[in-house]
Specification:
Elements (H helix, E strand, L loop, with lengths): L1 H15 L2 H105 L5 H21 L4
């Protein structure tokens, strides 16, 4: 019943308007829709322009960052090569240091043997028999140990 009443009320309103009034109402609605559409297009155009500007800025930053990355990679490669050279040089210096330490120990041992021998002969006592063999054997073993630790390239 309510539905029927609503239908009759709306039909009478539509029929109550003249054709001229309906055209004016429709033209006003079209003008209103055109204004909304135009405003929406203008706003969208502004938004697109702003987004394109932002894309341009970001693209410029990305290009700059890529350039920086390339430069940093080149610097990293250069520093890595220098580091490897330093490691090689350090290894060589360590080997030379070990050689020099071993030679120094050999020279110190030889000097000690010389001083010991000189004192023995200076005192006129000298070493005889088993005692002299044990001392020279001990000195020879120590000299051999020192010389065997020397790295010869």
């Amino acid at each position: 019943m309510k539905l029927l009443f609503t239908f009759l009320l709306l039909s009478s309103v539509c029929l109550g308007q003249s054709k001229k009034d309906q055209i004016i109402t429709l033209n006003t609605s079209i003008d209103s829709l055109n204004t909304v559409l135009s405003t929406t297009r203008d706003n969208a155009s502004k938004d697109i322009g702003a987004l394109n500007d932002k894309i341009g800025e970001i693209s410029t930053k990305v290009t700059a960052l890529r350039s920086d990355l390339t430069n940093l990679q080149a610097s990293n490669n250069k520093l890595t090569k220098e580091n490897e050279k330093f490691k090689t040089d350090l290894g060589e210096l360590s080997k030379k240091n070990l050689q020099l330490d071993a030679k120094l120990k050999a020279v110190e041992l030889e000097n000690e043997v010389g001083r010991f021998t000189y004192r023995l002969y200076e005192d006129g006592e000298g070493l005889h028999g088993q005692e002299s063999c044990e001392i020279y054997l001990k000195i020879g073993v120590e000299l051999h140990h020192v010389e065997s630790t020397v790295w010869h390239p």
